[in-house]
Specification:
It contains two helices and 20 strands.
Length: 262
């Protein structure tokens, strides 16, 4: 009987983590470039009372055996990289990735982080930076006398300079991809860090090597579906309730056994 108490407790713990992940998804429903996460569960060890295939007699075998499970656990929280909807902003510094790929951002310590958030700004030096002021890589600097900024689908950045008839090309935005993007480590602030599980970043021109193209004047919204998350929340809540009910039933059965007397 004690097995049911502990098994149900593991189920409640697992569903509590499930709710935590769902809540984080919903909290970031308006976060630019955010990718929803999903909890993957595993069953725990089994207590084997009778091994399947064990000899029952000299001529027969046990067909199924007796194995009693000891509960469940969360095994992984996987980030889902399905595309989010694109919203037109009209801001020339907003850039959305249509397809696979990440923007490379340089952190203060000189290391690289990666993001799908293309809501760029200009710092005091005219560099393209993210909302925290970290510069986009490769470095793109917009002249102070630029009157119009154009970003092509292949990442080519050009500007019109006051008094000049021809546009001036400043550089090119590149994108990076990973063999296993789900292996990237989240550091918050819409930034992801490479790990041994993700593999090294492979940088290339947008629109080549399987990378997406760029859309100027657009941002990529979160891929969180409120309806799906609400349904998942209801399912997790009911699973939590039924596990707590299992504990209640097990406790009542133990109480009945304890009250038996001759």
């Amino acid at each position: 009987m004690m097995r049911s108490l502990w098994s149900a407790a593991t189920g409640m713990t697992a569903q509590q983590t499930n709710i935590d992940v769902i809540a984080n998804n919903l909290a970031n429903v308006n976060t630019v470039g955010f990718k929803a996460s999903r909890v993957d569960f595993q069953d725990l060890m089994y207590q084997t009372i009778s091994q399947p295939g064990a000899a029952a007699t000299e001529a027969t075998q046990v067909p199924t055996g007796i194995q009693i499970g000891l509960g469940a656990r969360y095994a992984a929280v996987q980030r889902l990289f399905s595309p989010g909807e694109l919203r037109q902003t009209g801001n020339s510094l907003d850039v959305a990735i249509e397809g696979d790929g990440f923007f490379e951002i340089m952190l203060p310590d000189g290391s690289a982080a990666y993001t799908r958030d293309g809501a760029f700004k200009l710092d005091g030096q005219g560099r393209l930076v993210n909302s925290d002021g970290h510069p986009l890589q490769p470095d793109i600097t917009i002249p102070a006398d630029a009157t119009q900024i154009s970003i092509g689908t292949d990442g080519t950045v050009s500007v019109n300079i006051a008094g000049q008839t021809e546009s001036q090309q400043l550089g090119q935005i590149t994108l990076s991809k990973f063999l296993n993007p789900a292996g990237l480590s989240s550091m918050g602030r819409n930034l992801l860090l490479p790990t041994a599980a993700s593999g090294d970043a492979l940088a290339s021109t947008p629109g080549t090597d399987g990378l997406g193209t760029l859309g100027q004047g657009f941002i990529e919204l979160s891929n969180v579906s409120i309806i799906e998350e609400m349904v998942s929340m209801i399912v997790a809540q009911r699973a939590y309730e039924v596990n707590s009910k299992s504990i209640q039933v097990a406790d009542e059965m133990l109480s009945m056994a304890n009250s038996l007397h001759r």
